[in-house]
From TrEMBL, chain A:
It comes from Aliishimia ponticola. Residues 162-277 form the Sulfide dehydrogenase [flavocytochrome c] flavoprotein chain central domain. Residues 353-418 form the Flavocytochrome c sulphide dehydrogenase flavin-binding domain. InterPro entries: FAD/NAD-bd_sf, FAD/NAD-binding_dom, FAD/NAD-linked_Rdtase_dimer_sf, FCSD_central, FlavoCytC_S_DH_flav-bd, FlavoCytC_S_DH_flav-bd_sf, SQRD, TAT_signal. SUPFAM superfamilies: FAD/NAD(P)-binding domain, FAD/NAD-linked reductases, dimerisation (C-terminal) domain. Residues 31-134 form the FAD/NAD(P)-binding domain. This is NAD(P)/FAD-dependent oxidoreductase. Keywords: FAD, Flavoprotein.
Automatic annotation (TrEMBL), chain B:
Residues 26-129, 158-234 form the Cytochrome c domain. Keywords: Electron transport, Heme, Iron, Metal-binding, Signal, Transport. It comes from Aliishimia ponticola. This is C-type cytochrome. Residues 1-22 form the signal peptide. Gene3D superfamilies: Cytochrome c-like domain (1.10.760.10).
Length: 419, 235
């Protein structure tokens, strides 16, 4: 189920061998390389291949053979979804004409317009779409680095980290303590940490009801705060201690060896510590030289980078304006980008960009909430047009329908991404 | 007006109803109220036409998915071809949980769990099939288009190519293969119904906040374009 090192190595070797073929076939046809097979990259690759009807050679570079979505991974922690339900293969994309290469992109030569791969190959592109998701800022949480991710998982990329965190939660002693170090803005999935707190609380309430949850947060407020706090009071009274910026939540350090968390000078021994550090664009964006600070600034009309008109950045890694970093946003941006890239390479019709996003969160069984907005491209940024949010005090039928809707959305977006 | 086949079906029905309790007029009246859940998609009675769902006149004894000119799901077509006919018992199962009977059905309906309510609804539906011959007047409001939308808006001819691009915003949630887990299917709707529904969201007559927001910024031409595209999308 989970990818281990052995299967990764096998993948890399196979991809290296396969690469000579697309380079030969691709002669004469414009080629788009998409790096990263998540909500942004898979969608972009699928739409360009589908809508160009063979006129564009589309190569998708993604190291994993099975993609585990980060969205809905909290529902796995809460016991509402199995990990298998969150896994998706690239078989349909390949069948739809996308040349799927399972390898790591390790560098971009912008002058030669090539991407180099860990397997040794070098691929030329006409347009390059980077959708690498996030990486973590070094030294963001004192005492934590990537080497500590097994002791204190981030679980903020789907798959094995999520499974590790769940195993640790299940192994907590009776009355134990779960700590979360929440990230500063901007980060992937604004309500994600708080949905996670809800899902961990849901699990603990049923299996370890005297356990406690501590959240150290560098922010003073967070996405859907009123809704989450209402839900925590309704479902998990007395279990969750959220320590925001005003109470020293941003002054935090951890010791993975001793399993302690120190918040505003007060050290606590914990059983599980979920450290979600400050984030930045996935590394390939930085290697391509299209980032400025932690993120890659892009033009709102087509998601092309400010640094290079032939390189586009989608989703979490982009700095685009008002849209939250979410799978929904990345999927929305990918379709605008796909249309623009097709237009540039084949002269197909380009319509004005429209973007939208909705984020659903589950607080407890059948208690779903959502927030969403529509956006448009201006000269400066992707700008919010209109939005809505679930209301506190909604009746249970509304909340249940909202949760069911989120399941419908999951089925919809994953079929939109993977075919 | 009874034909041999229909007559045989009626006999079957009588037997089926006999086992599940005979319908009386109170059931029919209660069933008519319950039918309001169906009216958004199905017409019944005099002049009923196919809308989002097929019309339901003459339903009893008919082979499933057998109306020419209505685009059924593969799933229901397959069931019809393998012998499924609509009688009180098969309708009871279908209405209880449509997807349990036909997993790929386009009928975006969760089902009615209450057995008595199903019996009442079926009794009402029964009055629109042959025999008893005294078919009552159709409910004049039994229509999917109870609206006051400007005919000029309805008359706009949509550009399906533009609709295809705009549709990419819909398909993040709504599945193009007609799947409807928690979010309704929007493919193969009659264009008029699609346009009416979208304007009802845009004008905040329909309640859903996401759809109000999405429809709210679509122009009349854009809604027409989407309707044109979704009416013709291929499986």
């Amino acid at each position: 189920m989970t990818l281990n090192r052995r299967s990764f190595i096998g993948t890399t070797v196979a991809a290296g061998a396969a690469l000579s073929a697309p380079m030969a076939i691709g002669q004469g046809k414009p080629r788009v390389i998409v790096v990263g097979g998540g909500a942004g990259g898979a969608t972009a690759a699928r739409y360009i291949a589908k809508d160009s009807k063979g006129a564009i050679d589309v190569v998708l570079i993604e190291p994993t053979r099975t993609y585990y979505t980060c969205f809905f991974s909290n529902l796995y922690l809460g016991g509402f979804k199995e990990m298998d339900e969150l896994g998706h293969s690239y078989g349909n994309l390949a069948a739809a004409g996308v040349n799927v290469v399972h390898d790591w992109a390790t560098g971009v030569d912008r002058d030669a317009k090539t991407v180099s791969l860990a397997g040794g190959a070098t691929l030329a592109y006409d347009k390059l779409i980077l959708s690498p998701g996030i990486d973590f800022v070094d030294g963001a949480v004192e005492g934590w680095d990537l080497a500590a991710q097994n002791a204190m998982p981030h679980a903020y990329k789907g798959g094995s980290q999520t499974e590790l965190l769940k195993a640790q939660i299940m192994a907590m002693p009776e009355g134990g303590t779960f700590a979360m170090v929440a990230p500063p803005n901007p980060y992937r999935c604004p309500p994600g940490p708080y949905e996670r707190v809800s899902m961990v609380a849901h699990y603990l309430k049923a299996n370890n009801p005297t356990a406690k949850i501590i959240v150290a947060d560098p922010k003073g407020k967070f996405s859907k705060m009123g809704l989450f706090q209402e839900g925590w009071g309704n479902h998990y009274a007395g279990m969750i201690d959220w320590i925001g910026a005003d109470f020293g939540g941003g002054n935090v350090s951890v010791d993975p060896a001793a399993m302690t968390v120190t918040i505003d000078g007060e050290e606590t021994k914990v059983d599980v510590c979920n450290v979600i550090p400050a984030m930045k664009a996935g590394r390939i964006a930085e290697l391509a030289g299209v980032t400025d600070g932690n993120w890659a600034p892009v033009n709102a009309a087509d998601m092309s980078t400010k640094a290079d008109a032939d390189i586009y950045v989608l989703g979490d890694a982009s700095q685009q304006g008002d849209m939250p970093k979410s799978g929904f946003s990345a999927n929305s941006q990918a379709k605008v980008c796909a249309m623009a890239v097709r237009g540039a390479l084949t002269g197909s019709k380009v319509f004005p960009a429209k973007f939208s996003n909705t984020c659903w969160s589950l607080i407890d069984t059948n208690d779903g909430v959502k927030v969403g907005a529509t956006y448009e491209a201006t000269d400066e940024k992707i700008a919010k047009v209109d939005g809505f949010i679930s209301q506190t005090g909604e009746d249970s039928a509304t909340r249940k329908a909202t949760y069911e809707e989120s399941e419908g959305w999951y089925a919809g977006i994953t079929s939109d991404m993977f075919g | 007006m009874l034909k041999g086949g229909a007559f045989a079906a009626v006999l079957t029905l009588t037997a089926a109803l006999g086992t599940s309790g005979a319908a009386d007029t109170a059931d029919i009246a209660a069933g008519e109220k319950i039918f309001s859940k169906c009216k958004g998609c199905h017409q019944i009675g005099e002049g009923a036409k196919h809308r989002i769902g097929p019309h339901l006149n003459g339903l009893f004894g008919r082979k499933a998915a057998s109306h020419d000119g209505f685009k059924y799901s593969k799933s229901l077509t397959r069931l019809g071809n393998s012998g499924l006919e609509w009688h009180a018992d098969t309708l009871d199962a279908y209405i209880e949980n449509p997807r349990a009977l036909a997993s790929g059905t386009r009928m975006s309906f969760r089902g009615i769990k209450d057995a008595q309510e199903r019996t009442q609804l079926i009794a009402y539906l029964r009055t629109f099939s042959d025999n008893p011959a005294n078919i009552p007047e159709a409910d004049p409001t039994a229509t999917g288009t109870d609206h006051d939308l400007d005919p000029e808006i309805l008359a706009i001819v949509g550009d399906p190519e533009y609709g295809e691009y705009l549709s990419s915003e819909c398909t993040t949630c709504h599945q193009t293969d007609g799947g409807d887990d928690g979010i309704p299917s929007i493919v193969f709707w009659p264009e008029e119904d699609f346009v009416v529904a979208m304007h009802a969201y845009k004008n905040k007559q329909r309640a859903h906040p996401v759809m109000q927001m999405m429809a709210g910024r679509l122009s009349n031409d854009e809604i027409a374009a989407l309707a044109a595209y979704f009416a013709t999308i291929e499986e």
